[in-house]
Design brief:
about 325 residues, alpha/beta, 7-stranded parallel sheet
């Protein structure tokens, strides 16, 4: 066993015992990826599967961070030891996460809480591996619940929402967020809708839009399949209005998941997705290597000479790899 793996094991054992600095170092390794990240993910996976994961997403400026801060305060006051993983855009200068509202969150967190920003680094594939590993690490270290807050509405957010047991989608009035959430595919993954800044004009219109979309989902059979209709909560996270209702809805949904057995289905889907993401990453790395090899160069030359098509080249290369 290498010294690197020995070090990871020691840090992991220390983090499980409550050493926050060790936990932070492990999270950094997970973000970087590579062999060390795989070792840590493997250790965490063996003892995880116990925490409730809450995803909070929505358009930029919808008040996700403020709502997350309110929930953080409520969970902390209830004595919960929770972790917040804030998935941020990467800084164009440093490549690190832009902290944003994380500093304000620190003031709301209890002593047992742990807040961490994770940079997207413009690589949704890497994020798809780092987020589940970080969740499992928090889980192994005894944090419950784990809250994931994402930067906005897009494919990354849908992917991250897929890593959660309960997904909260935040929309605001007058910005067409409800329609955008539907277009982004968040309607299918949302378990709770929050109309934030509900004191603004158009809040009731936003609620109506969501109700209509949910009704269409009912017609298409979505509600019959899941057996669950997402509640719509009016809130104003600046003054805390609606935060307790959101907390109650999260707990109600967690209870529904366990009573219906849906939690096991979601956990299985998450693990299958993680395996798929890892397979795709490995295949991608292999493809990069092959394209730089003699085999790849030979096929690329034939494509450039118009002797074979790119599709034929790809099939031939894959066929050669599978034979080996």
């Amino acid at each position: 066993m290498t010294s690197s793996s020995d070090s990871s094991i020691e840090l992991f054992e220390s983090a499980v015992k409550g050493e926050r600095r060790s936990l932070g170092r492990l999270l950094t390794s997970i973000e970087r990826g590579g062999n060390e990240a795989e070792i840590i993910a493997g250790l965490a996976h063996q003892v995880s599967g116990n925490t409730h994961v809450v995803g909070i997403t929505g358009a930029p400026g919808s008040g996700k961070s403020t709502l997350t801060g309110r929930l953080l305060k409520l969970f902390s006051e209830a004595g919960d030891k929770l972790a917040v993983l804030a998935v941020d855009p990467s800084s164009p200068l440093t490549g690190g996460a832009i902290l944003g509202d994380r500093i304000r969150m620190d003031d709301l967190a209890g002593e047992e809480s742990f807040i961490r920003s994770m940079a997207t680094r413009g690589h949704s594939g890497g994020l798809a591996l780092a987020v589940p590993a970080a969740i499992q690490l928090f889980d192994a270290a005894g944090y419950e619940p784990v809250i994931i807050e994402t930067v906005g509405v897009g494919q990354v957010e849908v992917d991250v929402a897929g890593a959660a047991d309960t997904t909260v989608v935040v929309v605001t009035p007058g910005m067409g967020d409800a329609v955008q959430a539907n277009k982004a595919g968040l309607l299918e993954v949302a378990d709770i809708f929050v109309v934030n800044k509900s004191d603004r004009p158009g809040a009731n219109d936003a609620r109506r839009d969501l109700e209509l979309m949910l009704d269409l989902g009912h017609v298409s059979g979505l509600e019959q399949i899941t057996g669950y209709r997402p509640p719509i909560i009016m809130a104003n996270s600046l003054d805390g209005t609606g935060a307790e209702e959101v907390l109650d809805a999260i707990k109600s949904h967690e209870e529904y998941l366990h009573n219906s057995g849906t939690i096991h289905t979601r956990q299985k889907e998450r693990l299958v997705k993680e395996v798929q993401n890892r397979i795709e990453l490995l295949i991608g790395l292999t493809a990069d290597g092959v394209l730089k090899s003699e085999l790849g160069n030979r096929h690329i030359t034939q494509v450039l000479d118009r002797k074979i098509s790119p599709a034929e080249a790809a099939k031939s290369i894959v066929g050669s790899l599978l034979k080996n």
